[in-house]
Structure formats: C-alpha cells, structure tokens
From TrEMBL:
Its EC number is 2.6.99.2. It comes from Komagataeibacter xylinus. The gene is pdxJ. It is found in: Cytoplasm. This is Pyridoxine 5'-phosphate synthase. One of its GO terms (biological process) is pyridoxine biosynthetic process. 1-deoxy-D-xylulose 5-phosphate binds at D16, H17, R52, H57, T107.
C-alpha cells in the first residue's frame, strides 16, 4: 500500500444463500455455519447473516451457532422491529445492520427510510447501542438519509449498491456510481463509517472498492453462486484480490 492509498477494505461474506439451498429440502445440508467457518479460514474478514422475519433462509439456531463458533465479527442483518432487537441484544453480535423488509420481496429492494421512520428507529438504535452492539443502517446514498443516520447515533451506514449493480446500461450505472461517490463522501464527513453492499460481483465491485471512504463490503449472493463452480476458498480469494487491486 502506498502512503496515499486508502486503508484496506474488509470483506464480509454473507452466507444467507447457503441456508436458502439447505431449506429447499428441509434438512441440514448444506450447513451455513460450516460455510461461514470455511469463509473465515479462506480470508473473510467478517460474516453477515440476515435473519428475515419469515426465516426464509437464516434461522435463529444458525445465528446461535455462528455466535458461538466464529472468531471473526458477525454482522446480523435484521428488520428494525422489537422482536429482532430483543434477539440481537440477547445474541450480542459484533454489529447489527438494520434493513428494510417486505415479506413479499425477493430481496432487499431499497434502503431503510431512516428519515421517515426516525421516531420508531431512535429507541431501537439506542437499545442496540446501549447493549454495546455496533449499529449500521442499510440506506440509499441520499444526503438526508445519511444525516439522519448520524443524528440517530448509528456508527455505520451501509450504502445499498443494488441500483448500481442492476443499472440497465453504462450511463445509468455511472449515475448510480456518482450517487454512491457523493454519498460515501458525505457519510464520512458526518462521522459515519461507510460500508457498501448488495448485488456486487467480480465485474462491478472495482469502482465501489476504489471509493476511499468505504471500509467494508458485504457480498453474498454472487460469492455463494460462484462457489458452486470454483469452491468458496477460491472465490473468496479471488474477490479479495479484485478488491485489493481496485484499492491500490
Ligand atoms: C440486506 C441485504 O442487502 C441483503 O443482501 C440480504 O442480506 C440478503 O438476503 P436477501 O437475498 O434475502 O435479501
Ligand atoms: N448487505 C448486503 C449483503 O449482505 C449481501 O448482498 P448480496 O451480495 O447477497 O446481494
């Protein structure tokens, strides 16, 4: 790393979709905790797992085991509800990332509306902070959302890269990258640690990894899908190399 290079980025590996495959047959294979331990051994800097309200992939028992067995930080993604806040304060993961959830959605469709939901979010963020859990808010790169996240006492914002990843053409992707660039700069100025994630792949991650404010990337669906072909250790190693090259 040269004197002017930004700090290295942590790679959080999201293991939700190992559980999706397990749940398709109702048994115990493949085990998402075994995948998390393999990811840890393969260089992952953290593990992310999203306990959805409908338990469609990760289940409560998975999180209990992750908490007991992992040596690297566990980032628990969850809806900002009383039920989830109670589970989190009992489980005590390293971090909780509050995400919006709609029961019918295929995946997380947008950022959390921290501006519109500030009143209900405030006590839940305070409960997590009081329990010593690092609070992250999964938001779109919008100035008002970022400022509200800082006011509410979050330590981190995770910028939703879904619109960037799903952009239909290069021009639309450049617009989304511009929003993420401005958002990352603004969030860092507001004193927030900046993370990013959703829909990231080998091909689209370099411009996001090159944003100097971004300290952590959380990547799941692509890594788990690609691991079918190449194996999880190879895929994590390659993703880390792509990220490091973009950061250099
Ligand atoms: C919050 C988020 O970005 C999602 O990536 C999630 O953690 C993955 O799970 P889903 O595919 O169920 O949305
Ligand atoms: N918060 C984003 C995440 O954990 C992973 O998203 P994806 O790579 O599964 O789309």
């Amino acid at each position: 790393m040269s004197a002017s290079s930004p700090a290295p980025i942590r790679l959080g590996v999201n293991i939700d979709h190992v559980a999706t495959v397990r749940n398709a047959r109702g048994g115990t294979h493949p085990d998402p905790v075994r995948a998390a331990l393999l990811a840890q051994k393969s260089g992952a800097d953290g593990i992310t797992a999203h306990l959805r309200e409908d338990r469609r992939h990760i289940r409560d028992a998975d999180l209990e085991r992750l908490r007991a067995e992992l040596a690297i930080p566990l980032n628990m993604e969850m809806a900002a509800t009383d039920e989830m806040t109670t589970i989190a304060t009992r489980l005590h993961p390293h971090a909780c990332c509050l995400v919006p959830e709609r029961r019918q959605e295929v995946t997380t469709e947008g950022g959390l509306d921290v501006l519109g939901q500030a009143e209900t979010l405030a006590p839940r963020i305070a409960r997590l902070n009081d329990a010593g859990i690092r609070v992250s808010l999964f938001i779109d790169p919008d100035a008002a959302q970022i400022e509200t996240a800082a006011k509410l006492g979050a330590a981190v914002v995770e910028l939703h890269t879904g619109a960037y990843a799903d952009a239909p053409d290069a021009a639309a992707r450049a617009v989304e990258l511009g929003r993420l660039t401005t958002g990352a700069t603004h969030a860092a100025r507001c004193g927030l640690e900046v993370h990013a994630g959703h829909g990231l792949t080998y091909d689209n991650v370099p411009p996001i990894a090159a944003l100097p404010q971004v300290m952590e990337l959380n990547i799941g669906h692509f890594l788990i899908g690609q691991a079918i072909f190449d194996g999880l250790p190879t895929v994590i190693g390659h993703m880390k190399a792509v990220i490091a090259a973009a950061r250099a």
